[in-house]
């Protein structure tokens, strides 16, 4: 395989790799990106549903939200955002509630008409009634100590059990640090300054990020199978799994997986909203996405008499499966520290992105991190 004609190699054409590539190319570098999948975009990738034209997010719903002005201005160089505002509803025992925990949910659930000023005392009384004493010893106790038992049992217990395939009383308390209870009827899920979905689609975002004469993309290409063919001194920006880079020499880092079941339905509107959660443990999926609702600005999806939905099921993970959520425990932190020490001994490689750092990042945080890392590197080699 080639090598002399490129200055930098990037592994992975997810958001991190694409932002790094763009910055390096704009600074005059000749960049090669290798992507193991058949198309760029990583887990934020989307594609148009062939029958309906509806944009579908291939790996679960992705809503862009940020309060970081630098990131917002950066991404708006490539795409425009629609004015979609994310709301999440949740079905519990046959009734539908507005998430997150706030006045709408609390008043509907308890059949009350609390006013904002009454909420803190009401929740405090629920917590007192639960009768827990001492430091919470697990996730169940932590959640109950924050919102009381009835809200925990209705909206947190079953969902968490499904997500982790573990009873919440066997999960560490630190997974839930805070459970903010809103005291108003604001049902906007995110409180960031800016949010929306790219009007051109996430596929449009990746096309535009990579549209630079200095960037060459090779898909269906696994870097790890080819790495001996590259010169040892070629700088590498690596956004694959950090443990895979080192041949899993200390053992694999643990992840949670997901499984998606897609369905095209002969009806205009299946659930009336983009995301519906299912809180109860006896429903095997955690949520249903209905993608046409992400584009309220576009008539195209709404004109279709069909709709596309996707049921999301949490799944166990084993090496070789797509990793979704890092499993943060003391054991995984100790394992990660070993790989980080190995990475520090690789001066030509910058490890980044959610897989390279073994860390859950929202998209805006991945962009910010990519910008920081690539500019630090360019400053160093100047
Ligand atoms: C279910 C789910 C929902 C989410 N929803 C949101 C949301 O609503 N809003 C939000 O801001 N964020 C969301 N995120 C987070 C978002 O997906 C990430 O921030 C983003 O995808 C991270 O980009 P990345 O480039 O770091 O990693 P990835 O997207 O995983 O990209 C890494 C790429 O590297 C490639 N690769 C790996 N190894 C190799 C190799 N050896 N050779 C070649 N290529 C390789 C992979 O194929 C992949 O394409 C969500 C995440 C999940 C799991």
Task: Summarize this entry quickly.
The protein has helices spanning 15-26, 69-75, 103-110, 119-130, 139-147, 149-164, 201-210, 223-226, 242-245, 299-303, 330-344, 353-356, 363-381, and strands spanning 8-11, 31-34, 46-48, 55-57, 64-66, 89-92, 95-98, 194-196, 215-218, 236-238, 255-265, 275-278, 287-290, 307-315, 325-326, 349-351.
Task: Report on this structure.
The protein has 382 residues and is an alpha/beta fold. Among the domains are: 8-84 and 198-254 and 326-381, Rossmann fold (3-Layer(aba) Sandwich); 115-175, no CATH class. 33% of the residues lie in helices and 18% in strands. The chain has 13 helices and 16 strands. Helix 1 (15-26) runs parallel beside helix 13 (363-381), helix 4 (119-130) packs across helix 5 (139-147) and helix 5 runs antiparallel to helix 6. The two termini are 28 Å apart. The site of flavin-adenine dinucleotide has 35 residues, from helix 1, helix 8, helix 12 and helix 13.
Features:
382 residues; alpha/beta; Rossmann fold; seven-stranded mixed sheet; five-stranded parallel sheet; 18% strand; binds flavin-adenine dinucleotide
CATH class of the domain at 8-84 and 198-254 and 326-381: Alpha Beta
Principal-axes geometry comes out as globular
The CATH superfamily name of the domain at 8-84 and 198-254 and 326-381 is NAD(P)-binding Rossmann-like Domain
Largest sheet: 7 strands, mixed
- Please tally the helical runs, counting DSSP H or I stretches of 4 or more residues: 13
Low-confidence stretches: none
Radius of gyration: 23 Å
């Amino acid at each position: 395989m080639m090598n002399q004609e490129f200055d930098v190699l990037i592994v992975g054409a997810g958001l991190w790799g694409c932002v790094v590539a763009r910055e390096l190319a704009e600074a005059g570098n000749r960049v090669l990106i290798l992507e193991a999948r058949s198309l760029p975009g990583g887990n934020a990738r989307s594609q148009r549903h062939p029958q309906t034209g509806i944009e579908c997010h291939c790996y679960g719903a992705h809503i862009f939200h940020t309060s970081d002005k630098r990131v917002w201005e950066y991404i708006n160089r490539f795409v425009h955002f629609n004015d979609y505002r994310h709301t999440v509803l949740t079905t519990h025992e046959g009734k539908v509630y507005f998430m997150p925990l706030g006045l709408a949910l609390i008043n509907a659930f308890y059949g009350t008409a609390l006013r904002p000023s009454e909420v803190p005392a009401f929740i405090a009384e629920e917590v007192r009634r639960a009768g827990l004493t001492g430091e919470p010893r697990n996730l169940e106790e932590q959640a109950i100590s924050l919102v009381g038992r009835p809200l925990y049992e209705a909206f947190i217990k079953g969902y968490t059990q499904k997500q982790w395939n573990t009873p919440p009383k066997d999960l560490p308390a630190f997974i839930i640090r805070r459970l903010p209870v809103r005291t108003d009827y604001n049902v906007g899920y995110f409180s960031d300054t800016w949010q929306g979905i790219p009007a051109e689609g996430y596929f449009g975002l990746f096309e535009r990020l990579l549209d630079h004469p200095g960037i060459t993309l090779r898909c269906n290409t696994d870097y790890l199978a080819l790495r001996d063919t590259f010169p040892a001194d070629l700088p590498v920006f690596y956004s694959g799994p950090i443990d895979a880079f080192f041949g899993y020499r200390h053992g694999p880092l643990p992840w949670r997986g997901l499984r998606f079941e897609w369905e095209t339905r002969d009806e205009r509107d299946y659930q009336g909203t983009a995301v519906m959660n299912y809180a109860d443990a006896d429903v095997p999926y955690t949520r249903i996405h209905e993608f046409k609702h992400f584009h309220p600005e576009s008539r195209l999806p709404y004109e279709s008499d069909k709709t596309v939905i996707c049921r999301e099921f949490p799944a166990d993970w084993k090496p070789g499966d797509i990793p979704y959520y890092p499993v943060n425990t003391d054991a995984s932190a100790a394992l990660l520290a070993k790989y980080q020490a190995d990475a520090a001994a690789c001066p030509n490689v910058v490890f980044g992105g959610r897989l390279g750092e073994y860390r859950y990042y929202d998209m805006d945080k991945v962009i910010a991190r990519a910008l920081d890392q690539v500019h630090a590197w360019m400053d160093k080699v100047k």
